[in-house]
Amino acid sequence: MNHEKTFALKGDIVYTAAPGGFTVVEQGYAVCENGRSAGVFGRLPEQFDGIHVEDCGQKLIIPGLVDLHLHAPQYSFRGLGMDLELLDWLETHTFPEEARFCDLDYAKRAYTLFADALSRGATTRACVFATVHVPATLCLMELLERTGIRAMVGKVNMDRNCPDSLREQSAAVSLGETRRWLEGCAGKFKNVSPILTPRFIPSCTDELMRGLGALQQATGLPVQSHLSENHSEIEWVQQLCPESAFYGDAYDRFGLFGGGCPTIMAHCVHSSAAEIDLMKRRGVFIAHCAASNMNICSGVAPVRTYLARGMNVGLGTDVAGGFSDSVFRAMSDAIQASKLRWRLTDDSLAPLTVSEAFYLGTKGGGAFFGKVGSFEAGYEFDALVIDDAGLPHPQPLTPAERLERVVYLSDDRHISGKYVAGARVR
Ligand code: GUN
Ligand code: FE
Q1: Are both 6-63+373-424 and 65-369 of the same fold?
Q2: What is the assigned CATH class of domain 65-369?
Q3: Is the Cβ atom of 374 under 6 angstroms away from ligand 1?
Q4: Are strands 123-129 and 150-154 parallel, antiparallel or unpaired?
Q5: Between 104-120 and 134-147, two packed helices, what is the crossing angle to 10 degrees?
Q6: Other C-beta atoms lying within 10 Å of the C-beta of residue 164
Q7: 6-63+373-424 carries CATH number 2.30.40.10
Q8: Domain Amidohydrolase-related spans what residues (predicted)?
Q9: Which of 171, 178, 297, 365 could form a disulfide with 207 if both were Cys (CB 3.0 to 4.6 A apart)?
């Protein structure tokens, strides 16, 4: 038995085994055995007699949060320049900033700020876009490795439709750099792993996509990209790939759309019925990025539809389309956006509840990492200890109500402990 990773946290435990409601054990024991949850108990079972029990008093104990989609290089300009729509926003703000990351010193400074922020926050798992640059991407991976957070990090591929300062010279160059990056990180990290990252169809030639499809087949690596975020983008993809039946089909033609290829597609705001059907069939994960979709005026994704169809859905902060790296904030943004969508555009899709949003930000997105995002037995033990004493209330509240307030009102100062796969990281 690994004693360091076998212990119990005692406190008010709340998690979502299913979207429909919270599972609550007041003054319970969340038992971690060799890095995995052994379950949550009202009394410590005899078999765990003698293990270390960390008494968290009245604090809340909840699963760690999962950010399925964000851009590390964009952390520098979070909160700036959100007065444009996607394609103009990319040209005006995003590509010029990402071009700076060819300078490793600059990248190191920027990525240190980013890694420190993730380390302080509630995120325990993240899927992260870097830039096209190999040294900067390896630097980001090293910095994230030290935080103890589990992250999948992608060196971005782009060989068309961007400034020369950012564009990889050809598909062959882009693929060669990708292989160099994979060699550079092979066997080097415990917490961090690579994920193939074609930016989106407009940034990648067919030749590049074909090469990435072959690389995915050869390596089994997961893939992340963007899908059906904005109307102009969708029209552009149709022009660039007239032979594709819909946007998602343009990835699928290269074997980069779920099935044997674990895939995250960010946004899916304007997915057609055929695209939704294919995502469902292929088990594609949808990263719902409500804040970004509002900020750059993309719209509001029909998350209720995705949940009702039992599709794989999680939350993404999408920094810097989203200005906050907080997954709690992504939960409340998802709820608020769903209410406006319901009121203004489609009253057949009921707004998200708090437990549904919490589920998306834990177990929903966590499923991309395996058994992650819950305290059910067998799940990797990712946990947050939340001290909500600083959010005082005169009336009695249940643990689920306290968690609801934490979703809306808390910040990093309320996190008093953070565990990833049984290791204390904060
Ligand atoms: N589509 C392609 N690149 C990006 C990006 O960096 N952010 C967002 N929100 N959408 C994208
Ligand atoms: Fe994005």
Answers
A1: no
A2: alpha beta
A3: no
A4: parallel
A5: 30
A6: 7
A7: yes
A8: 61-423
A9: 171
